[in-house]
């Protein structure tokens, strides 16, 4: 029988543990610098790795004199077990660009491992003239430049005056990179254009191509423009600051790709469009600037009524085009009809195709006498950019029949023949005159000793403290410099708003006065100088003051109308609407501020 040996389990475990510890601690600590190359062209890139075989802390890189750091430090860690032996590596990596030719020394880096300080050896790198085919690794900035593009797509580059032009701003992103955030740096100002932004409710990524390559893109901004001037007009660029995540060749502990983040400024670039003037040949005499494709009609709410009753006559233009930028024709009504100022109405929706809908003037007419009153035909002319021709449409003649009421001729004869007024008398014609009175004799010394006497006697004593209080209040108001500025600005706002009302009908004077009123109101409420005004800053400040978004948008819209009035035609109805809107917005902001 073979002899059995008794195995000591605790002793065996202790032996294996010692062997495991020795295997794990086998080898000295290493910390070294590795260069991708010792000689490179000035247009190439140098990669520098600081590698260690044990984890450390307080890594201190050299100053990289003669080089510019493009990326880094990026950190990578690898760890593995092979036959019970642990292999560990940790690396700090930098991508450098040389700043000049010559020989440069990359000095020591240091790190603390196990409580001891370890330093790498310095190495020398030679930088030569530029090479034809640099093979250095591209920086994150260079990769982002090649794979990120902001483009302004213009629907027409050679439109007619007042023809619709749409601009769509798209951000193209290559699949090689990703965008984590963006913010606008400079919004374009559309000088010499009537403009309206089309709201982008949400950002939807779509597949597309840019210069023949596959990209993903999002639409950031859409705007509709109507040029107000012929010739070459520039569309200012939109600029964005974009945070870009660029993949590197490094892998993290779990094998995932390591990304490098960089901020890039991209711009859509200026776009120039050549605006054609409307042809003079064949231009109708009644042409008021309408450009598009329209229908025109004149209608009445009724054609038969009695005197002193009212009817509505509506002049309406519908279709596609610059509906907000021309005047509606006025009907030629008989002088014997009482006509009130028209009520302007608009139902317009704006998309990338331009304005669509209708505008109308509604006249209230009240006939005073019976008879038949014709409303003559009126014409409306517009230019159609598709057919490149002027088109004139005429309304039908409408006959208003007033059935019952006084005759104008009989009323005139009655007025001329009878200039006297019949007066009827009655017995109680003077009943309002009182003939009986209750008089009382005035007592002697009635005033002295009476209540009014003592009140007048004490009045000076009461006036003295009132005078002191008023004087202190006046001094407080005089010393309140900020308050005085606010009150002064409030008065100026009221002054200019009243001036704007007085200049209704005169476009330039009205909008100058309205803009000054709005600015002085903000100066009073926000306590900032007029020189600091910009629409973006106004929007931010009002948002901080908890003014609701709708009121802010109305206020900004008024400021835009004041700017647009310098180069766009505005009707009297539009001016009245802007004045009423300004009064309403100031009232709402007063309550919220």
Automatic annotation (TrEMBL):
Residues 1-23 form the signal peptide. Keywords: Membrane, Signal, Transmembrane, Transmembrane helix. The chain crosses the membrane at residues 453-470. PANTHER family: BATD, PROTEIN BATD-RELATED. This is Oxygen tolerance protein BatD.
């Amino acid at each position: 029988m073979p002899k059995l040996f008794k195995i000591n389990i605790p002793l065996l475990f202790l032996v294996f543990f010692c062997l495991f510890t020795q295997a794990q601690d086998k080898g000295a600590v290493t910390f070294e610098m590795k260069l991708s190359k010792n000689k490179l062209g000035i247009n190439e890139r140098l990669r520098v790795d600081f590698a260690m075989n044990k984890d450390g802390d307080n890594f201190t890189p050299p100053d990289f004199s003669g080089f510019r750091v493009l990326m880094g430090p990026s950190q990578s860690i690898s760890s593995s077990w092979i036959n019970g032996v642990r292999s560990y590596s940790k690396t700090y990596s930098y991508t450098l660009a040389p700043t000049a030719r010559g020989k440069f020394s990359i000095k020591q880096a240091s790190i603390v491992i196990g409580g001891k300080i370890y330093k790498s050896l310095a190495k020398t790198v030679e930088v030569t003239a530029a090479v034809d085919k640099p093979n250095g690794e591209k920086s994150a900035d260079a990769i982002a430049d090649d794979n990120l593009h902001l483009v302004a797509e213009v629907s027409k580059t050679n439109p007619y005056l007042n023809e619709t032009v749409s601009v769509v701003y798209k951000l193209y992103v290559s699949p090689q990179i990703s965008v984590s955030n963006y913010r606008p740096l400079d919004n374009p100002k559309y000088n010499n254009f009537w403009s309206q932004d089309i709201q982008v409710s949400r950002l939807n990524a779509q597949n597309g191509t840019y210069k023949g390559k596959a990209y993903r893109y999002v639409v950031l901004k859409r705007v509709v423009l109507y040029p107000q001037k012929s010739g070459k007009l520039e569309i200012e660029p939109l600029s964005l600051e974009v945070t870009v995540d660029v993949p590197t060749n490094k892998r993290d502990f779990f094998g995932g790709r390591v990304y490098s983040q960089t901020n890039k400024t991209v711009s859509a670039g200026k776009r120039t469009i050549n605006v054609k003037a409307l042809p003079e040949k064949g231009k109708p005499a009644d042409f008021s600037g309408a450009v598009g494709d329209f229908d025109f009609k004149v209608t009445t709410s009724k054609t038969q009524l009695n005197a002193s009753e009212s009817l509505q006559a509506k002049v309406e233009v519908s279709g596609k085009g610059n509906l907000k930028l021309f005047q509606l024709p006025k009907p030629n009504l008989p002088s014997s009809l009482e006509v009130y100022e028209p009520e302007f109405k608009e139902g317009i929706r704006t998309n990338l195709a331009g304005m669509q809908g209708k505008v109308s003037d509604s006249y209230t007419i009240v006939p005073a006498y019976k008879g038949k009153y014709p409303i003559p035909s009126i014409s409306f002319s517009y230019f159609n950019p598709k057919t490149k021709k002027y088109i004139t449409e005429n309304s039908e003649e409408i006959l208003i029949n007033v059935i019952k009421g006084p005759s104008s001729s009989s009323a005139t004869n009655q007025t001329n023949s009878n200039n006297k007024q019949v007066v009827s008398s009655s017995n109680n014609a003077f009943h309002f005159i009182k003939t009986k009175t209750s008089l009382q004799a005035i007592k002697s010394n009635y005033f002295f000793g009476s209540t009014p006497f003592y009140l007048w006697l004490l009045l000076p004593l009461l006036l003295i403290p009132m005078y002191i209080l008023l004087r202190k209040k006046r001094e407080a108001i005089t010393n309140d410099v900020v308050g005085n500025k606010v009150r002064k600005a409030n008065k100026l706002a009221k002054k200019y708003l009243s001036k704007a009302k007085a200049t209704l009908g005169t476009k330039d004077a009205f909008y100058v006065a309205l803009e000054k009123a709005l600015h002085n109101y903000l100066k009073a409420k926000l306590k900032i100088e007029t020189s600091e005004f910009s629409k973006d800053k106004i929007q931010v400040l009002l948002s901080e003051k908890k003014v609701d978004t709708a009121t802010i948008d109305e206020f900004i819209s008024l400021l835009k109308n004041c700017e647009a009035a310098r180069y766009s035609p505005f009707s009297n109805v539009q001016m009245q609407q802007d004045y009423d809107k300004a009064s309403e917005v100031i009232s709402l902001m007063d309550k919220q501020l």
